Amino acid sequence: MRTRANYHSNYELNYHTAMVSWDYHQDRPYKGDTIEGHRRMYLHLYFNEAKAVDDKISFNKMLDAFEEELFSGKRNPEHEKQYARYYDINTTPVRGVQLTPKQEAIDAAEKNYGYFALMSNSIKDPFEALDIYRSKRPG
After folding, report:
1. DSSP assignment, residue 131?
2. Whether residues 65 and 106 fall in one domain
3. How far apart, in Å, are the Cα atoms of 1 and each of 11, 18, 77, 78, 98?
4. Which of 74, 89, 95, 132 pairs with 23 at a CA distance of 20 to 30 A?
């Protein structure tokens, strides 16, 4: 997906569209029957490199804030799960707080930065779907 062939200069992003099918089931009580079958859907995937960089910067600022909270001793109870997810924390009376980042967890959090998806049951063109989505969302 992240190739030159899948890059659109006007939108500054990479894209890929795949047609997928899903099982359709509709109960019709007014007719007393059920409609079943397969329907098609278009899965539009996008990658925006600038968004990936912005997401990474925001994530690193969050980690900086966590480190400040841990080193200062002003732990936020709402962040305890995230402290444990991203750091091995060791506290000793002499050396104080020592943090070792859990790189695998950090890499896992960063792996999907810049990606997003849209689905449609009728719009085949990925940029038509993107334009409609952008025109409907606020701001």
Report:
1. H
2. yes
3. 15, 11, 40, 37, 40
4. 132
Using the structure block, give the residue that is written with the tokens 């305890």.
80
Which residues, other chains included, contact 79 with Cβ-Cβ below 8 Å and sequence gap of 6+?
66, 69
Contact present, 41 and 120 (Cβ < 8 Å): yes
pLDDT tens per residue across span 66-81: 999 999 999 999 999 9
Same-domain check for residues 107 and 137: no
| 47 touches 115 (CB < 8 A) | yes
Tell me the DSSP string of 42-74: EEEEEE-HHHHHHHHHHHHHHHHHHHHHHHHT-
Q: Whole-prediction pTM value?
A: 0.74
Structural domain harbouring 84 = 50-113
pLDDT tens per residue, range 8-23: 999 999 999 999 998 8
CA-CA-CA-CA torsion sign (82, 104, 61, 55): negative
